[in-house]
Design goal:
Layout lengths: L2 E10 L2 E10 L6 E7 L7 H12 L3 E4 L12 H13 L1 H17 L3 E11 L1 H11 L6 E5 L17 E7 L7 H13 L4 E6 L12 E2 L4 E2 L2 H18 L2
Parallel strand pairs: 3-4, 3-5, 5-6, 6-7, 7-8
Antiparallel strand pairs: 1-2, 2-4, 9-10
Length: 239
Amino acid sequence: MAVQTKTIDYADGDTALEGYFAWDNAVSGPRPGVLIVHAWAGRSPFEEEAARKLAGLGYAGLAMDVYGKGVLGSDPEENTKLMTPFLENRPMLQNRLKLGLQVLRDDADVDANKIAATGYCFGGLCVLDLARTGEDFQGAASFHGLFNKPGNTDGNAIKAKVLALHGWDDPMVPPADVVALAEELTSSGADWQIHGYGNTLHAFTNPEANAPDMGAMYQADADRRSWQAMENFLAEVFA
């Protein structure tokens, strides 16, 4: 018995999407499910590995697809072109995220009453947006996500517990944005935590990140510490 994987085809209107699902078949019965939302390049081996690691912890992991089946950017210019329409239309993004969340809930190996979401960079913004909509799930963990508000969720009560894992020196998310997120989460009634990692830039969990001129760099200590923080968070929200 070991971690198993499969792909799940689904669609948003005319857009074909493909999720990557991982679970451990040594675990009997439905188990908590964790949605993984990809960074700006699209669903990649990085997010698939996260799904397998979560499966190894006894959860079911679904690395969802925001852009479309097989759609991946290969450089910063392409990644920006893929991401920008969703940043400019946050309701469209939120609807697609809710669809991925429902695919996870509907799987027979998942306990639909124990659901969390994690995401990286663009995906970190995504899981914060899921929480901002007032969607009823247990927890949202954002790894080096963007914090800017979507503009269509003011006044919503945030039901999910929130964990933001942030590189303090990330030039894309200056300290003022961190304070603004804290104030927003407080005003929304959220149970929230923000962990700041010193001497740490954007994309700190990705071993392939090596662009300090763009403010993105892998940081092994922050990677290890943030994953442990997420493990602790999931244990708490699923208790």
